[in-house]
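This section describes the prediction task in plain terms. A model, or a person checking by hand, is given the sequence of a single protein chain and must write out its three-dimensional structure as a string of tokens. No templates, partner chains or ligands are provided. The sample shown here is typical of the held-out split.
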Amino acid sequence: MILRVLAGAAIIALLIVGWLTINDAQNAPPSMPVARRVPNPGYAAQDAELIETGPNGRPMYALHASEIRQQPASDFVTLEKVTLQFRDPRGGVWNGRADQGVVSNGASKVDLTGAVTLSGRLPDEAPVSISSNALAVDTRTEIVTTKDPVVFELNGQQLTARGMVADLKDERVELESDVHGLYRP
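The expected answer:
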């Protein structure tokens, strides 16, 4: 008799546990979707302009490009068909053009490649033009550099060299090697 009571109690207990399990599953709140970590897709824009402002709120430089792409999971922004404009400390405007460019978020250095030209005027109003296949322009320090062949024109006179460091603020240009030119006063 005790065996029957125990067996009956065990069956009833199993039925209660089974009923509770089924009932809890039906009344449970819907499960929340698992949040997946999606990689930064970056951004892209056509016919866009990037403007960096200085502490005074005035533009330090403006980049216009036919296409701008921020590389995913990176601070780099690539540019296609680029124009660059910035002002030197005395207010002179410098304009640049290139086939491509790369700029880092928050950085003042713009790396330009492909048929690059940069032109402006020195304080004495002398026109300056710099041409190369690659130029790095730091708009804060106003230093332009290249390791590539470069053509430097000042007042219609032309010098060619391989490599250059041009400090636009201090009006100093260093042509690094293989310098050629003819200066006619």
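For orientation: The mean pLDDT is 79.
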